Amino acid sequence: MEEDARQLRILLLGSPRVFYDEQEIHIKRRLLRALFFYLASQPNPVGRSVLMDLFWPEESEEDARRHIREALSKLRSELPDPSLIVATQDHVRLDTERVYVDLLEYQALVEQVRPYVQRGMHTPLPEAIYQQMVKAVNLWRGTEFLAGANLPSTDGLDHWLSLTSQSLSFSHQNLLETLSEHCAVSGDLENAVHWMRKAVQLDEENPDLYYQLIQWLHEIGRVKYLPIKDDEALESFQTLSRLEGIIPALESAHALAEAIKRAPTMRKDQIILVNLSGRGDKDLNTVIGLIR
After folding, report:
1. Which phi and psi (to 5°) does residue 54 adopt?
2. Domain at 230-291, CATH class
3. What kind of fold does domain 3-101 have according to CATH?
4. Domain 104-219 has CATH 1.25.40
5. Are strands 85-87 and 17-20 parallel, antiparallel or unpaired?
6. CB half-sphere exposure, 134, CA atoms < 13 A
7. What distance in Å separates the CA atoms of residue 99 and residue 254, rounded to the nearest whole number?
8. DSSP string across 217-275
9. Helices (H), the chain
10. Distance from first CA to last CA of the chain, Å, rounded?
11. CA angle 9-15-20, nearest 5°?
């Protein structure tokens, strides 16, 4: 059944949201939310023993089974239709015929395109595969699985959330990089930049992604490389330190040098924005050695 034909929509790729016939519903209790989101994330029925280990690991089997019954009863009362939860003596699941979960659609799409996820691409992807990848990444409404869900903590639940988040982040990252490379080898650098920007948001400490992004921006004329001499960078390093009390990194000092050169040619109402990245105290010994 298509997404728009299902009564209950559960969105987990980002901040979790739940809709019933387009009306948003909220499950207020943390434990019930956690149980509901966990069941929604599973493609198959979940054994009661699994739920016992995840949510009530320190309880006796008798008490844990009682807690499950009570939790399911309370969860049903919070849903517009109690029959959306299907429970047998041994297993619990959501009614997949009437429930849509973005996570499950995403995982199905990832499985279909998995053989095509690669780096160092030399030829474009088949169009159908490209569209499936686009559909998969567009299911994300943020960068984190269950962002801000505020779930209760147990060792088992924390472990599940951590592993699932890491796995989803890894696949999301790979898809974005594959999409950007596909666009690049297809000669569509504008969209290559679009997908690479999203990849950078997921992996902000990866210098290779920044380098590739800047290279493509340069090729489409949105970034210009300018030469700065060492003595100009050293002079701007000292100027900012002396006038503002800010010690820039040497890399940023090169940008400052260009700003200092351009400023006299600009009107007073124009603004130059310089990104000061990094800390200059790590470069002090180098600078002192050069200016002596």
Report:
1. -75, -45
2. alpha beta
3. Arc Repressor Mutant, subunit A (1.10.10)
4. yes
5. unpaired
6. 13
7. 56
8. HHHTTS-------HHHHHHHHHHHHHHHS----HHHHHHHHHHHHHGGGS-TT------
9. 30-41, 48-55, 61-78, 102-113, 127-138, 155-185, 189-202, 207-219, 230-244, 250-262, 284-291
10. 74
11. 20
Hey, where are the domains in the chain? Answer: 3-101, 104-219, 230-291
How far apart are the C-alpha atoms of 137 and 171, rounded to whole Å? Answer: 10
Residue by residue, pLDDT tens for the chain (292 residues) are: 455 556 899 999 999 999 998 899 999 999 999 999 999 999 999 999 999 999 999 999 999 999 999 999 999 999 999 999 999 999 999 999 999 999 999 999 999 999 999 777 889 999 999 999 999 999 999 999 999 999 999 999 999 999 999 999 999 999 999 999 999 999 999 999 999 999 999 999 999 999 999 999 999 999 888 999 999 999 999 999 999 999 999 889 999 999 999 999 999 999 999 988 777 888 888 888 887 7
**Buried b or exposed e, range 188-204, using 16+ CB within 10 angstroms:** ebeebbebbebbbebee
